Amino acid sequence: MARTVPSRKTVRPWRPGRLSAVGAVALVLAAGAVVPAQGAAADDAKGGQRVLTVAVSQSVDSLSPFLAQRVISSSVHRLMYEYLTNYDPKDGHAVPGLATSWKASPSKLTWTYTIRKDSKWSDGQRTTADDAAWTFNKMMNDKGAATANGSFIANFKKVTAPDPTTLVIELSKPQATMTALDVPIVPRHVWEKVGDFSKFNNDQAFPVVGNGPFVLTDYKVDQYIKLKPNKSFWRGAPKFDELVFTYYKDNDAAVAALQKGEVSFVSNLSPAQASSLKSTPHVKVNDAPGRRFFALATNPGAQSRDGKRFGDGNPALLDPKVRRALFAAVDRKALVDKVFQGHAAEGEGYIPPRFADYFWKPAPEQKIAYDPAKAAALLDEAGYRTGPDGKRVGKDGKPLDLRLLCHAIDPNDKAVSKYLQEWWGKLGIGLEVGCVDNVTDPWTAGEFDLALDGYSVNPDPDYVLSIHTCAALPATPKATGQTDDFICDRRFDELYARQLAEYDTAKRADLVKQMESRLYDTGYMNVMAYPNAVEAYRTDQIESITTMPEAAGNIYGQDGYWSWWSAVPAAGSAAKSGGGSSAGVVLGIVAGAIVLAGLASFLVLRRRAGADDRE
Questions:
Q1: Which residues form the signal peptide (predicted)?
Q2: What is the pLDDT of residues 464-496, one digit of tens each?
Q3: Which end of the chain has fewer CB atoms surrounding its CB within 10 Å, N or C?
Q4: 598: Cβ–Cβ under 8 A, 6 or more apart, which residues?
């Protein structure tokens, strides 16, 4: 979720553990044995191969593209598998992927894609339209296979492959996302052997067969993900000899590793970290408008599609006046200035300003401005009066005390939480802050009142909109849904259906903005900021790399594989990246400090994973 999220998101999913850190870096130990984070000894023996090492803090939710919703997982799947279409790194418009071209029938209910002839699976077999048809049909007929991306096939009526280069998708209703189907196409001859798609995590046999620019060769939970170039990739093989995502729970440790040349790239930098790195030799800081939003979400009453309520959300939040009062007591400008220190834009609508066609802001008379006096008046109207001790008390005599769920790994969450405690405390509202490593379990169980949320948004906003529909709710209280925070609003659903069926770009954008307005007015979410993408890489290891958009965009978590596929090794970088430095960091011994910790359980989590949430 992703709050990770992610469109699809941050989600984003925003939300979910990691291990503790000591000194310069976190040390991961299993059963008391020191575990190399990136296979240092093996890398030393490679003869100086060029390894691009990316520091990450987010845990993989699943390596199955049918289950994964986090940014780290979906980013890896972008590298492993082709989608029918891709997004141009310059401006995000649809470009060929596995499909070289596509056309719609006059009714727009039948879409025909021409599948390229020059794509092969990494085991040598040719990629065909049958692989794509099988992928979509599996999602249509198996709820487990539709866990992550089911919204994309909701209107699919029939999918066929009349020949190896032709894919035909018939729709029951028009669907505007037919050139933005963010669904990894998998090899049928491998995946048709899978039994339970709701449980298969694709993490037992390596290398994993794919047809993207990289091949997944190894993975250890909360330690590393290793990928090798796919030499037969139709667009051309990546230029580094290996790509390694290495886990750091503590971003200060990751920054220290970057400064020492032990990793090539670090994202999610704090303002202080970015400032310190600007003076570090051979380090370039990228600070650009991001594709994420940072929000305060309420629990409007956790529910499932069968109508059952669950969780323990405070019923006070069912009152829109209470929700509006809370938001009116949040000074978004102060958060941008004091927490993000200017590396963000003030939050308004649901879609970040980077996506200009869909960006919406409330009219002056609609905007919930920072107004503590108005917030107090709204609480009075809702029946929460101030008692002799200054605490707000409801008609039942109970004080208005709320719980805030947040991410222990995210310093922004902790800083924002303190401001909320101060602002709401002045109104007489008690706020218990619970920043935890794993926010997924209480979130999906509906055991929270408020939560710090966020998602990465795709060029096409359909996915991040879909997670607020009634259809995204879990089927039962025990099931897993795609919902972000249990929102089910019939007016929002009606608008969602209309925008999905609208092919006129301007008309669809208007409908999306109406959805944002509705989401704003119902008060279930308050977008507080649009954080910049603040990241850094070593120029003595990476000579050049593509941002998205190219003019001023992010490197990590792109809508595509452009960054890592395009990265060019710096001249003479082999010794650093392959000789046991950047690619051979051993997270078992650092400055003589060893932290004993059990390996985190492999959980199929949502996108809510702090600053790394999926789109």
A1: 1-39
A2: 999 999 999 999 998 878 898 899 999 999 999
A3: C
A4: 30
